[in-house]
Design a protein that fits this description.
Elements (H helix, E strand, L loop, with lengths): L6 H9 L14 H13 L14 H11 L4 H8 L1 E3 L9 E4 L2 E5 L3 E8 L2 E8 L7 E4 L5
Helix pairs in contact: 1-2
Organism: Sphingomonas molluscorum
InterPro entries: DUF6950
Protein name: DUF6950 domain-containing protein
Length: about 140
């Protein structure tokens, strides 16, 4: 799975309609959001085995045990190249405090809540907690 030459345009088009979409387990959560972003950039869904398999937090944990490697981080380790979070670039997958999202350079975009607003949120790089990161490969 490699980024298409126009990956930045594809990613922007994917993000725009999701800005105000509320969190929903199995439909618009950190896993489905991040997998959708990768699919937008590469034309390959990295998590198809999870689609339609859960609709609650408990169901998500069960799906990770059944279809993944037990945890979200271990599942991502099996699908992507792990990198030092300090080296995460725009379009890479990043986890902070267990929340998965997409690196946009100086911040991480993820599904969440800020005050009364639900949808995509920004987490500044300086506020990442126990970050993990995975490279979304560039094509040649």
């Amino acid at each position: 799975m490699y980024r298409k030459p126009d990956w930045e345009t594809r990613l922007a088009a994917y993000l725009e309609p999701l800005r105000a979409r509320p969190f929903a387990w199995g439909e618009h959560d950190c896993c489905t959001f991040s997998a959708g972003a990768v699919a937008a950039m590469t034309d390959v869904d990295p998590m198809p085995e999870f689609r339609g398999r859960y609709s609650t937090a408990i169901g998500s944990a069960r799906a990770l045990r059944r279809f993944g490697r037990g945890t979200l981080a271990a599942t991502l380790d099996a699908k992507f190249e792990a990198i030092e979070p300090a080296f995460a670039q725009r379009g890479d997958v990043v986890m902070s405090s267990g929340l998965l999202g997409i690196c946009m350079g100086a911040f991480l975009v993820a599904v969440g809540r800020e005050g009364d607003r639900e949808g995509l949120i920004r987490i500044e790089r300086a506020r990442w907690v126990e970050p993990r990161a995975w490279r979304v490969q560039f094509g040649f």
